[in-house]
């Protein structure tokens, strides 16, 4: 999978109201959860009527799906594979870890995907599909980066196993840091991955 997004055709400018709705909805999910997010509250924060939110997103599921899709696409646009050199790969992984810490730990919030995962049973199929695609995107990128760290060829299964462990560690670390209110817990949990290149 190519981690660098390509545009087949020029995209149309986003409707400002639609963008604002997505911004407010994403923040509402992060702060209060999917179940608590309401069209009424989103509309009030945007400064429009609930009917206007329904015009752009007929159902709550449509809105959540759009929020998750935008989050995934934005994330994908920022992903780039490093050079196929061991230290470059480790540096890329460390930047990935830093970005996750900046997005969640330093702001004392859980990430959008973590919050939605906790409420997965409440999501419709389209939103769940976007959530799955987001995690698969991370897994694919991490697998490739880890494979660059080994001097010799690394089997796909081994790279995938490392990616799964790293991703689980990162997400778990954000939860622990949030639950304890101790940002340092995140770094303690992820520290081994910052020197992974020295062990494989």
Automatic annotation (TrEMBL):
DNA-binding residues (ranges): 38-57
InterPro entries hit by this protein: Homeodomain-like_sf, HTH-type_TetR-like_transc_reg, HTH_TetR, Tet_transcr_reg_TetR-rel_C_sf
Any single Pfam family the record assigns to this protein: TetR_N
A GO molecular function held by the record: DNA-binding transcription factor activity
Keywords: DNA-binding
PROSITE patterns from the UniProt entry: HTH_TETR_2
Annotated ranges, domain HTH tetR-type: 15-75
PANTHER family named among the record's database cross-references: HTH-TYPE TRANSCRIPTIONAL REGULATOR RUTR, TRANSCRIPTIONAL REGULATORY PROTEIN
Protein name in the entry: TetR family transcriptional regulator
Organism, scientific name: Marinomonas communis
């Amino acid at each position: 999978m190519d981690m660098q997004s390509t545009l087949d055709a020029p995209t149309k400018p986003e409707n400002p109201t639609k963008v604002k709705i997505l911004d407010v909805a994403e923040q509402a999910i992060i702060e209060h959860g999917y179940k608590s997010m309401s069209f009424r509250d989103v509309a009030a924060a945007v400064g429009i009527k609930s009917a206007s939110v329904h015009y752009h997103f007929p159902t709550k599921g449509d809105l959540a799906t759009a929020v998750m899709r935008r989050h995934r696409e934005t994330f994908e646009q920022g992903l780039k594979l490093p050079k196929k050199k061991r230290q470059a790969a480790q540096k890329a992984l460390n930047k990935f870890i830093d970005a996750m810490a900046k997005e969640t730990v330093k702001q004392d919030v859980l990430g959008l995907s973590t919050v939605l995962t906790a409420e997965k049973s409440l999501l419709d199929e389209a939103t769940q599909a976007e959530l799955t695609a987001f995690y698969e995107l991370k897994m694919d990128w991490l697998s490739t980066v880890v494979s660059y760290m080994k001097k010799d060829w690394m089997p796909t299964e081994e790279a995938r196993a490392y990616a799964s462990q790293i991703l689980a560690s990162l997400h778990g670390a954000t939860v622990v840091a949030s639950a304890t209110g101790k940002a340092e817990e995140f770094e303690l949990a992820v520290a081994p991955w910052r020197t992974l290149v020295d062990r494989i």
